[in-house]
Amino acid sequence: MAEILSMLRTSKRKGRLLEIVVMAVTVALVAAFSIAVDGFATPGNLEIILSNSASLVILGCGMAVVIISRGLDLSLIAVMVAGATTFSIFINADIPVVTALVLTVAAMAMVGLANAWLIAYVEIPAMLATLASAMAVTGFFRFAILRGEFLLLLSKDNPAVIFLSGDIVPGLPTPVALMVAALIVTWVLLRGTAAGRTIYAMGDNFQAARLTGLPVRTTTIVVYVFAAMMALCAGLVTSAASGAVDFRTVTNGTLLFEVVLVVVLGGIPLRGGRGGVWNIVIGVALIAVLRNGMTLMNFTSQTQDVLKGLVLMVAIVADNYLNPRDTETDAVGDL
Amino acid sequence: MVIKLGNKIRSAAHGLMIGAGVLLASGTQASADTDISGKKVVFVPIAMGISLTEGWARRMREHADMHGYTIDVRDAAFNTGAMAELLAKAISEKPDVLVVHNPTVQLLARQIKQAESEGIKVLQINLQSNQPSAAFVGANWERIGREIAEDIVKECGEGSGKSGKVSIVPGQLTAADSVIMNEAAFKVFEAHKEIEVVSNQASDWEPEKARQITATVLQQHPDLCAVFGHWDVHTMGAGNAVKDAGLADSVLVYATGGGDDVACKAVEDNVLDRVWSYDADGQGRDAGTMVDLLLQGASGADGAMMSVESPMKIIKGGDAYDPGLCWKM
């Protein structure tokens, strides 16, 4: 056994061991739930798993790109809710959907730009800059826009809401289509563009990337504006589905941790430079299957939180054991 | 004879009117004489920005303005840690009355005890702590849980031809209202073995979580008969899941709430079917009156907790729907 582990640890795929472990656990859970839980292994339930995971995957795309560039975006959920609020206010005021969308995209891009400016030009650590912007955005929207309200209710009769929560083509819900689109766009950004290669270079060794003349500042702008756009997309999907924009999603904080959880669990290290779209899918798959199975088994939300926390701890310990610190990781440090 | 009798009745009526006028005048005088102006009241809600607490604050402020005392609102913004700190600060300021909206039965119990021991009268509003205090104004959660459960039994139980399957969506399993309503509902369901609670998972008061839970439960139990949500706001997420699944005609969605116009809109839109409203506007008026009495030195017999139970309004969809049962901010 020790020899096998040693072989695995020295293999070329050692950096991908965590995702293999997570995939194996997901497959085992799917098998166990299929046997033990009535109603789990059905096409309808697969559709529910996909629909319920859509916003998490889209947020995961934004966070993954940021983390790969060795950043962190703690304003992601605030931007998600602020974007949904802006769009909802516009459509409730009978502004045409396209105009509302363009204005909302512009507003949220400004938040992403502000984050990037603080990080790339003022050189404030990403964690602090985005934490501050999360607070500023939440405070501004709650007190200046919503005048102290926590909730904004949306009419399910609104055409934009019907489109976002319905089927884009028969049998394909719009949230699932947007989730797939987000994954494709993220893949293209990371693998098919110069900015994507710079993002990996920044995550691998930021100083070296800067010294070799890579445009790290403009790439930081791309990264945080992209994250803001993903957050907006997730916000539109979530608010249309539940018929409400709820600022407690920001203040509760659990969704932000869940996004970081799926990214790390999928095998994207917080030190950046590694990972891709596949890792987001793996991370979300485990959490989505676990959550769905536990809901079908009527576990309380507290029990679900405990089990999710345990899964994260096991993943981190496994990652630490399978990918021990070496000269490279010690030199660059962790977040 | 008849004319004389009519004159006597008219004289008696005039006499009564004059008497009532004198009484009213003296009542007004008594009210103006009450020495509660300049007193201080602090209200610590779980969060402002929701119709429930905004409705209470509005009515309590009216009472404060009328009698010349002050009422400060300290918004905990759904942050229980901040709420305990705000309460500690409020106690240190030694107000005459403290109005507390408990997020759980235990969280603020020690601070309520401390405030009372320091001579500050504590009025608990709508959600009661384990710790008794000077007064409570709010809904009778046991009654709401029992009545909704009985209605579910009537609609889904024996002879209804339905599956008897029920999904409960509490806010938090430790919140006072959720604890009491669940206890009362399960007591009713236990006596009706045909009722099966297939899910009892808290949504943390969030509509999106309630939606996701309900969508998953409906997948497993498409023959679900009823959803019992513990607050209309998060239950709207559950109601939307029912509507999106195309089951709005077969699944009854029950909720409780403050009964503002948003609840009526949800009933009109078929997102909610039946709402047990405790009328937050009326509760605000009751709370204002109770604060007036506490400031005047009122107390329960032998120091017992004074209690005012909020009357219920039941908002039902369909032919029985009455938008007049809801209030508007």
Task: Summarize the SSE layout with pairings.
The complex is a heterodimer of chains A (335) and B (329).
Chain A: H1 2-10, H2 17-36, H3 43-68, H4 76-92, H5 97-121, H6 126-145, E1 151-153, H7 159-165, E2 167-169, E3 172-173, H8 174-192, H9 194-204, H10 206-211, H11 216-242, E4 244-246, H12 248-252, H13 254-265, H14 277-296, H15 301-322, H16 327-332
Antiparallel strand pairs in A: 1-4, 2-3
Chain B: H1 2-33, E1 40-44, H2 51-67, E2 70-73, H3 80-92, E3 97-100, H4 109-117, E4 121-125, E5 135-138, H5 141-156, E6 165-169, H6 176-190, E7 196-200, H7 207-220, E8 226-229, H8 232-244, E9 252-257, H9 261-268, E10 274-277, H10 280-295, E11 306-309, E12 313-316
Parallel strand pairs in B: 1-2, 1-3, 3-4, 4-5, 5-11, 6-7, 6-8, 8-9, 9-10
Antiparallel strand pairs in B: 10-12
Description:
The complex is a heterodimer of chains A (about 325) and B (about 325). Chain A is mainly alpha-helical. Chain A has a domain at about 50-250. Chain A has 16 helices and four strands. In chain A, the strands form two sheets. In chain A, strands 1-4 form a two-stranded antiparallel ribbon. In chain A, helix 7 (about 160-165) crosses helix 11 (about 215-240) and helix 8 (about 175-190) crosses helix 9 (about 195-205). The longest helix of chain A is centred in the last third of the chain and has 27 residues, at about 215-240. Chain A is globular, with a radius of gyration of 20 Å. The mean pLDDT of chain A is about 85. In chain B, strand 6, helix 6 and strand 7 form a beta-alpha-beta unit. The longest helix of chain B has about 30 residues, at about 1-35. Chain B starts with a helix and ends in a 13-residue tail after the last strand. In chain B, strands 2-1-3-4-5-11 form a six-stranded parallel sheet, with helices on both faces. In chain B, strands 7-6-8-9-10-12 form a six-stranded mixed sheet, sandwiched between helices. With about 325 residues, chain B is α/β, with parallel strands linked by helices.
